[in-house]
């Protein structure tokens, strides 16, 4: 690299002095991750301002492909998906940007973002292997996204200083340099020759060998538990010279349903940060603000078993899920102040939260009684079960309906092959809830009945795997459901458009269905509450409820699973609430509602309650 001309806008590597050069001057960044898709748009500016006031010069941003290309060739850059508006705000606040457009992003995001719903998953696993169909989908996406990015590059007068190619590709052991080379070519063709392109991998030798490529600057990621000398030593073996970069310094960690709430000490995070800054390294903190997996956007991991990620992505990050500064933020800010001046201006205090208190709901209807509303085009007939993917149902739920083929006077085993219930199946016989089958848990139930009795199984997609080799994570009934080992057939399959109905105001105005007496099994509950004066942020608890989803005013706030935990409350941003007219609540409870269906709105979150395995097994 030739020395940068100080007059031009430039952002380059300086191999001689082991640093970046910005406009010719030595530069290192202190950055934090924020995902616009996990933060309600009205809160973007607030979160970015607080990041700026923490002393960060830079923010690191993922672009989730499947959030924007919702179906092959169908793009959405509006509302919360307006990535350009988000980037405008970063520029307005004087922040630089490190962009991570994937195409695979992990991020504990549904399917790692790595292809639109509806692309043939079998033909296009990502990113472990790269058949032509996948590369074609990647290229057509990059041709839509990167032209929006190019004018925002630092060299073009914008604030994007670098762009990551792929993400932790070395963790897939595919070691397909041809794939990385293909991406490098596409990024260069669409972004030009000047922009700094880089890769990020964990500090293992194998990961760094397979994830790096000549022409892409290598960086590593590691948390406060790692030995800084060793981790940067590993980086030095692939990049003997140039700036030291930790692209993901873990300030906390994610939570899985059914596991303990994760937390990382502020002092420990601050100490590790100081050690790295002492070495002159550039650091991005992952996450600086985690936010929320609203609707169906949470991903899952696979380690011995399927592990879905909670709705909250608080991450124990310096800025909490609701965007409030924490003790960790101030510890980090103090460390930063030892290395560079902090911006002038006080950190805004925590925003007020409001405990709206108890809100009574009433049962509207059992789910099976409203299939005409949730699946207006009617069921698909199939002799054997079909997957969500086969029926182009991206997220949410489908009902599989059939009848018992013969009399079953004595308890018979209703079951599916292991790992074929993806991810949970709520079983109803003659519309009576019988129990739940799980992907890696209970896969059989005992039933009795008569030939012709109706059998329904509501399949729930809990989010596709975002890390590991199993990214072709098909959903629905992947195998035959059988009765005493004889496969059941003649299915009617209902893909459910629940969100479409709820967004249109259903079922608020409707009178409860007459048949809606019981409190067991999948059913809808509704209610309203008013906000006095100002629509403050709040957190809603589900006392005695089991598992389901919550919408307020048609906005899908995500999954609750009070029975399994650890998360006990859902974050409700004030921006979804209305002042001066009732706020409409819709709950889909999947297993069992409490005797009095009440919700409790609190002024603080509850993330930490884990039930033991024995309790889980009795669910
Ligand atoms: C980190 O690793 C280096 C090199 O292996 C070793 O000398 C040092 O003691 C380690 N530091 C800590 C805190 O374990
Ligand atoms: C969760 O709660 C338990 C007991 O209530 C406590 O021992 C534990 O430290 C808490 N964990 C976190 C991460 O807050
Ligand atoms: C993928 O998932 C299947 C079960 O669904 C499991 O048997 C297999 O071990 C997984 N593979 C990897 C590499 O995790
Ligand atoms: C379901 O059973 C039928 C009949 O035995 C068989 O042809 C079919 O392959 C099975 N489907 C799956 C997904 O196992
Ligand atoms: C709540 O539902 C009612 C009945 O459908 C509707 O008239 C009203 O506009 C809804 N309110 C909000 C805030 O969505």
TrEMBL record:
It comes from Catharus ustulatus. Keywords: Glycoprotein, Glycosidase, Hydrolase, Signal. This is Galactosidase beta 1 like. Coiled coil: none annotated. Pfam families: BetaGal_ABD_1, BetaGal_gal-bd, Glyco_hydro_35. SUPFAM superfamilies: (Trans)glycosidases, Galactose-binding domain-like. Residues 385-496 form the Beta-galactosidase 1-like first all-beta domain. GO terms for biological process: carbohydrate metabolic process. Residues 522-580 form the Beta-galactosidase galactose-binding domain. GO terms for molecular function: beta-galactosidase activity. The active site is at 168 (proton donor), 248 (nucleophile). Residues 20-338 form the Glycoside hydrolase 35 catalytic domain. Belongs to the glycosyl hydrolase 35 family.
């Amino acid at each position: 690299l030739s020395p940068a001309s100080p007059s031009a806008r430039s952002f380059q590597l300086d191999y001689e002095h082991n640093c970046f050069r910005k406009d010719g001057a030595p530069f290192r960044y202190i950055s934090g991750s924020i995902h616009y898709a996990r933060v309600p748009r009205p809160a973007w500016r607030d979160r970015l301002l607080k990041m700026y006031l923490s002393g960060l010069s830079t923010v690191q941003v993922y672009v989730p492909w499947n959030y924007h290309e919702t179906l092959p060739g169908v793009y959405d850059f509006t509302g919360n998906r307006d990535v350009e508006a988000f980037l405008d705000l970063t520029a307005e606040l004087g922040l630089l940007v490190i962009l991570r457009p994937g195409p695979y992003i992990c991020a504990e995001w549904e399917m790692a973002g790595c292809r639109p719903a509806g692309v043939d998953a079998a033909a296009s696993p990502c990113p472990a292997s790269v058949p032509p169909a996948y590369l074609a989908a990647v290229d057509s996406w990059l041709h839509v996204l990167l032209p929006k990015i190019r004018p925002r590059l630092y060299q073009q007068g914008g604030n994007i200083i670098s762009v990551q190619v792929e993400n932790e590709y070395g963790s897939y052991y595919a070691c397909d340099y041809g794939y990385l080379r293909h991406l490098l070519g596409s990024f260069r063709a669409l972004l030009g020759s000047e922009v700094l392109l880089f890769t990020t991998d964990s500090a293992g030798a194998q990961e760094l060998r397979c994830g790096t490529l000549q022409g892409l600057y290598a960086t590593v990621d590691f948390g406060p538990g790692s030995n800084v000398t060793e981790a940067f030593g590993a980086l030095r073996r692939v990049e003997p010279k140039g700036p030291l970069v930790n692209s993901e310094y873990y300030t906390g960690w994610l939570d899985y349903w059914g596991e303990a709430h994760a937390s990382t000490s502020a002092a420990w995070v601050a100490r590790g940060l100081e050690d790295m800054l002492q070495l002159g390294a550039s650091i991005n903190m992952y996450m600086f603000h985690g936010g929320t997996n609203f609707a169906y956007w949470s991903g899952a991991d696979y380690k011995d078993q399927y592990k879905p990620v909670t709705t909250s992505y608080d991450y124990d990050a310096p800025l909490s899920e609701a965007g409030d500064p924490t003790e960790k933020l101030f510890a980090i800010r103090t460390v930063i102040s030892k290395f560079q001046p902090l911006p002038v201006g006080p950190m805004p205090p925590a925003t007020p939260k409001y405990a709206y208190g108890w809100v009574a709901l009433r049962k509207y209807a059992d789910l099976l009684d409203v299939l005409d509303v949730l699946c207006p085009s009617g069921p698909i007939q199939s002799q054997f079960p079909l997957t969500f993917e086969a029926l182009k149902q991206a997220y949410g739920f489908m009902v599989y309906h059939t009848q018992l083929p013969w009399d079953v006077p004595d308890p018979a085993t209703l079951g599916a092959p292991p790992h074929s219930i993806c991810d949970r199946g709520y079983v109803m016989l003659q519309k009576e809830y019988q129990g739940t089958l799980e992907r890696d848990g209970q896969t059989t139930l005992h039933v009795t009945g008569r030939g012709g009795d109706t059998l329904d199984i509501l399949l729930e997609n809990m989010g596709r795997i975002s890390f590991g080799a199993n990214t072709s994570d098909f959903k629905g009934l992947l195998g035959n459901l059988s009765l005493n080992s004889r496969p059941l057939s003649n299915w009617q399959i209902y893909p459910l458009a629940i969100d479409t109905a709820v967004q249109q105001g259903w079922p608020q105005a409707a009178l409860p269905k007459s048949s809606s007496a019981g409190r067991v099994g999948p059913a809808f509950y509704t209610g309203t509450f008013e906000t006095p004066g100002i629509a403050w942020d709040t957190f809603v608890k589900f006392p005695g409820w089991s598992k389901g989803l919550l919408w307020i005013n048609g906005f899908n706030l995500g999954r609750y699973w009070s029975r399994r935990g650890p998360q006990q409350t859902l974050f409700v941003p004030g921006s979804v609430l209305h002042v001066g007219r009732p706020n409409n609540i819709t709950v889909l409870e999947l297993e069992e509602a409490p005797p009095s269906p009440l919700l409790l709105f609190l002024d603080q979150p509850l993330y930490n309650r884990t039930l033991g395995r024995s309790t889980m097994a009795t669910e």
